[in-house]
Design a protein that fits this description.
alpha+beta; Arc Repressor Mutant, subunit A; Alpha-Beta Plaits; 4 strands; about 35% helix
Length: about 150
């Protein structure tokens, strides 16, 4: 199924997505109880949602500060070239870049960066600045750090 094609979700599918986004480690038997289906029917639904590309994976959320990253920043990059290979190569080689979005407007990319310190952020942004003009915004706090997706 093409990624952009809308997948028809019913109320049970929506409930499955809600529960799995809250806890992706929920066992099928427990998930089945929560959505009032048999375990086999629930497993089939989860498999169908995965096969259709609605569920794209499972992950663990890690607190950046607990693993040494005390600074979060967003870097806007005005990239002057249509050749994105140097950009892709640099962000691939920079593990502190945890998100990169190609956007409209004066800037071409918005990049989320984690750094160990302000000096470390300076090093990372210095590397990104070799590609074009940058503007950096340091995050004070994140009142909405992540939100579950509710199907439209």
């Amino acid at each position: 199924m093409p990624v952009n094609e809308r997948f028809g979700l019913d109320d049970v599918d929506r409930a499955i997505l809600e529960h799995l986004q809250r806890d992706g480690r929920t066992a099928v038997a427990e998930l089945a109880r929560q959505v009032n289906l048999s375990a086999s029917a629930t497993a089939d639904r989860v498999r169908r949602l995965s096969d259709a590309g609605v569920i794209t994976g499972y992950s663990v959320t890690v607190d950046p500060e607990s693993v040494g990253y005390s600074v979060t920043a967003f870097v806007r990059l005005a990239y002057p070239s249509g050749n994105y290979k140097p950009f892709n190569d640099l962000v691939t080689a920079t593990p502190e870049v945890i998100e990169a979005h190609h956007v409209t407007g004066a800037d071409c990319f918005i990049i989320k960066v984690l750094a160990r310190s302000m000096r470390d952020l300076e090093r990372i942004t210095g590397r990104l600045a070799t590609l074009g003009g940058i503007t950096t915004s340091v995050v004070y706090s994140s009142p909405v750090p992540s939100r579950h997706i509710t199907p439209a």
